[in-house]
């Protein structure tokens, strides 16, 4: 398993967690923080203000996602399979080069007007 695949798997996991954390939040003050008694200063399991925890976890996951994406960019293999063949200067075998015609005889279009 190459490093890019590992980063790709981590990116998918972090993106999924970020979606879950964002969906749990409610912009109107409801969400997970109000469902545990409604008090903003209530302590539950040692975590004060569940909304603050969700906000911090959102920022952490977003930062982790950006860093993973940038790190995965460094691990992309720029080997021979990803090179473009459109800029090759070598002679192409699929299509012969066009050569200008040196025939000076009249074409059917030239003979119509005379």
UniProtKB/TrEMBL annotation:
List keywords of the entry alphabetically.
Answer: Cell membrane, Membrane, Protein transport, Translocation, Transmembrane, Transmembrane helix, Transport
Cytoplasm recorded as keyword: no
Region Disordered, as annotated, extends over 81-114
Among its keywords, does the record have Cell membrane? yes
* Membrane topology designation: Multi-pass membrane protein
> InterPro entries, alphabetically?
SecG
Any Pfam family: SecG
Query: Any transmembrane segments, and where?
Result: 6-24, 58-76
According to the lineage, what is the superkingdom? Answer: Bacteria
Listed Polar residues bias regions: 92-114
Q: Where in the cell is it found?
A: Cell membrane
As for what it does, the entry says: Involved in protein export. Participates in an early event of protein translocation.
Protein family per UniProt = Belongs to the SecG family.
The entry's protein name is Protein-export membrane protein SecG
Species of origin reads Winogradskyella echinorum
């Amino acid at each position: 398993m190459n490093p890019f695949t590992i980063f790709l798997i981590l990116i998918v996991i972090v993106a999924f967690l970020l979606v879950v954390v964002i969906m749990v939040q409610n912009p109107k003050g409801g969400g997970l923080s109000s469902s545990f008694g409604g008090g903003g200063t209530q302590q539950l399991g040692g975590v004060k203000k569940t909304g603050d925890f969700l906000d911090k976890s959102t920022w952490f996951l977003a930062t982790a996602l950006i860093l993973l994406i940038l790190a995965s960019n460094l691990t992309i293999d720029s080997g021979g399979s990803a090179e473009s063949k459109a800029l090759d200067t070598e002679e192409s075998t699929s299509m012969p080069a066009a050569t200008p015609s040196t025939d000076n005889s009249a074409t059917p279009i030239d003979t119509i007007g005379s």
